[in-house]
Write a structure and sequence with these properties.
Elements lengths: L46 H4 L4 E2 L8 H19 L19 E6 L6 E2 L4 E2 L1 H7 L8 E5 L14 H4 L4 H10 L3 E6 L13 H12 L3 E4 L7 H8 L6 E5 L12 E5 L9 E2 H5 L4 E5 L7 H10 L2 E4 L2 E2 L2 E2 L4 H16 L1 H6 L1 E3 L6 H5 L2 E7 L4 E8 L5 E3 L5 E9 L4 E8 L3 E3 L4 E7 L7 H9 L15 E2 L13 E4 L2 E10 L25 E10 L2 E4 L5 H11 L23 H10 L7 H8 L12 E2 L4 E3 L4 E6 L1 E2 L13 E2 L5 E5 L11 E2 L3 E3 L2
Parallel strand pairs: 2-5, 2-12, 5-6, 6-7, 7-8, 8-9, 9-11, 11-12, 28-34
Antiparallel strand pairs: 1-10, 3-4, 13-14, 15-16, 16-17, 17-22, 18-21, 19-20, 19-22, 23-29, 24-27, 25-26, 27-35, 29-30, 30-33, 31-32
Length: about 675
């Protein structure tokens, strides 16, 4: 493959305007950087604007749309010539799949729909069954380290390398036609250093696991070392930059995840897609409960969606209407990829005055064989039924591909229904029906769609421990039972706290609204308990294991050690097993907090976080509140888990990995006993 003559530069992340502080901006409206760019109709556009625009806004007046389309064509020709663009990477057969990779799911590796914690294994079939109502995925990002990285010295590569059976998981997805992306965290500079530079480590990891691509977290573009290492890897890896991938990097990044793209009233054109028709973007606004804007923009541009229904432990599930819209889109896009990529694309064409007045817009995709497709979107809150298109043809059969209806033959486009805040696709066909058409119509007719926009809320339920059976051992601290009001302090991360999302329908939250210290007052009722004054030691845990023959179901990373320091490298189940042997249980986070404020409560050295009986699950994410802090603290990025000594009121929401990855040298435990 011939390399482009465009120079590759290292991204200056510190000067990135997308990461600017948002404290003076209304979080419910787009930031200036998110707004669509205005493309002049009769003069050149400054490349400093045009080469990084998210969306080119459509003019408000439909009379200006022909001039706008002409300006779009001039802009693309000028940008291609100025950058000496050749697009050779898109000719590679090995990675041509990117142009039809419409729907990608961003999944925490330990999502309980994918990882069966009770069985201790991954369940691809179960995951796909539980997410089938999204229309199926073309790709999956196995997000792995954040938000637990920093709990100890493990680096981002360790959080992949240490997962037993990960290669098999990747292969199983791929056997079903689903491409697998890994996640690269360039900000991970404060953990232990890997033997090679990041680019080499990523290439080795991709070869080891046989993956297909790399999601660049917080990076619009990879630097020259990263690009070369991944594109020339075996198997070759595609790169997906975050947000506004510049024109200069479309040459070697075949995809981009388009976060927080605001659109114009009449749908605009995604700059990256217009610049290179084979480039795939995946739109997302992670905190949204209404995804209709992103879906409509994607459909009008022939591009894809990033389905992200659990943001680092916070459930932000899609409503039934938006899932139905996505299914409608995907059925059309997957069979007509060639048309969307190579057909003649005419943005904002052929919508009737009646339709435009109702907020219904259309784009046209046509090929020389006599096949013409109109993608339609309805910006309004009521269904539109009527003459949406003004197009006329000779001897044409008409079809509604999203409802599965045959609309008959005629020279004029027949009436069609475009659902409120939804989409429709009208096909005009001159000649023989393609082989894929009957199946698509049948599938579309069998899917009635949905109009329900109710948020599918989930509640994280506390896992209740059994009552204790023994008497307290050793020195303990007594916690009086009864109602209390306790302060809870934490750092506001994307993980949220116990319930709900920390941000709803917001544009990009950044400091100081992200990573800021928070304090809440919680009303709790405590049982009367005795909490061990000190953590269980490694020597005590070894005594337990010897006396009982205890071995965990998964021994990966199980290494409790010896000596009088705290027992670490034990997971929650290990700690519970010891506590039950001692006739007790783990203290809840509230019992731990009250005990920690009492005389006699001690912390062993080295200082380690303590497991508590604060395990919660909402059926997708399982987490535990850790208490106490640790001597270990990963520095250099706010994305790391909190470390260092912590006040008793401080709680760390720790998302539970599986297969032993939750075992850490920074986490120990102590025991509590119910007092009857």
């Amino acid at each position: 493959m011939r390399r482009s003559t465009i120079s590759t530069r290292t991204t200056d992340r510190h000067a990135d305007p997308d990461e600017a502080s948002t404290n003076q901006i209304d979080p419910l409206v787009p930031r200036p950087i998110d707004l669509p760019a205005t493309l002049p109709l009769d003069e050149p556009l400054d490349p400093e604007v045009g080469d990084i625009a998210k969306v080119f806004a459509a003019p408000d007046d439909p009379a200006d749309w022909p001039a706008w389309r002409a300006a779009l064509a001039r802009w693309r020709a000028e940008a291609h010539a100025r950058l000496r663009y050749d697009g050779a990477i898109y000719d590679r057969a090995a990675t041509a799949w990117t142009r039809s990779c419409y729907s990608v799911a961003l999944i925490w590796l330990w999502d309980e729909r994918l990882y069966d914690r009770a069985a201790g294994r991954f369940d691809v079939a179960g995951f796909l069954a539980k997410t089938r109502d999204h229309g199926g995925f073309d790709g999956v990002v196995l997000w792995h380290a954040y938000p637990v990285i920093g709990i100890d010295d493990r680096n981002q590569f360790d959080f992949y390398h240490d997962v037993p059976g990960l290669r098999d998981l990747v292969a199983e997805f791929q056997s079903l036609g689903i491409r697998i992306f890994l996640d690269y965290n360039p900000w991970d500079t404060g953990t232990r250093r890997a033997p090679h530079d990041d680019a080499t480590e990523l290439a080795l990891l991709a070869s080891e696991l046989g993956t297909d691509g790399m999601f660049l977290d917080t990076m619009k573009e990879g630097d020259s070392r990263l690009v070369s290492a991944l594109l020339d890897n075996r198997p070759p890896q595609v790169l997906e930059g975050e947000s506004r991938l510049p024109n200069a990097r479309i040459v070697d990044h075949q995809l981009s995840w388009a976060q927080w793209f605001a659109d114009s009233t009449a749908p605009g054109v995604q700059r990256a897609r217009w610049f290179e028709r084979r480039h795939m973007t995946h739109q997302t606004r992670r905190w949204n409960r209404d995804h209709s804007d992103e879906l409509q923009s994607a459909f009008m541009n022939g591009t894809g969606m990033l389905v992200w229904d659990t943001v680092f432990g916070v459930w932000v599930g899609w409503n039934e209407r938006d899932k139905a819209t996505l299914r409608r889109m995907l059925r059309v896009q997957r069979v007509l990829t060639t048309l969307f990529v190579h057909g003649e694309w005419t943005p904002l064409a052929d919508a009737s005055d009646e339709a435009i007045a109702a907020g219904v817009y259309a784009s046209r995709f046509a090929d020389p064989s006599g096949l013409t497709l109109w993608t339609l979107v309805n910006r309004g809150d009521t269904d539109f039924t009527g003459d949406a298109l003004t197009a006329t043809t000779d001897g044409t059969a008409w079809f509604d591909l999203t409802s599965g209806a045959r609309l008959g033959h005629g020279t004029s486009a027949p009436p069609v229904t475009v659902p409120a805040r939804g989409v429709a696709a009208v096909l005009a066909l001159a000649g023989q029906e393609p082989a894929w058409l009957p199946g698509l119509l049948t599938a579309a007719a069998a899917d009635p769609g949905a109009a329900d926009t109710t948020f599918p809320a989930r509640t994280a339920a506390r896992v209740r421990p059994p009552a204790t059976s023994g008497r307290p051992r050793g020195v303990t601290v007594r916690v009086e039972g009864g109602p209390r009001t306790l302060p809870m302090t934490y750092r506001r991360r994307e993980t949220g706290s116990y319930q709900g999302a920390p941000y709803v329908e917001e544009w990009k939250p950044l400091p100081p609204r992200l990573h800021d210290p928070r304090r809440e007052l919680l009303a709790v009722t405590l049982a009367e308990v005795a909490v061990a004054a000190l953590e269980v030691t490694a020597e005590e845990f070894a005594e337990f294991a010897a006396a009982t023959g205890y071995r965990p179901a998964c021994e990966n990373r199980w290494s409790p050690g010896t000596g009088d320091g705290p027992a670490t490298m034990v997971d929650l189940a290990d700690a519970r097993a010891y506590a039950a042997w001692a006739g007790g249980r783990l203290p809840t986070e509230f019992e731990w907090q009250v005990a920690a404020g009492s005389p006699g409560f001690r912390r062993a050295t080295p200082l380690v976080w303590n497991w508590t009986e604060s395990e919660h699950t909402d059926g997708v994410t399982r987490f535990v509140m850790l208490k106490g802090g640790s001597d270990h603290e990963s520095t250099g990025s706010d994305w790391y888990v909190d470390g260092g000594p912590r006040d008793p009121s401080f709680s760390l929401k720790f998302l539970l990995p599986g297969l032993g990855l939750d075992r850490s040298p920074s986490i120990g435990f102590r025991v509590a006993w119910d007092i009857r």
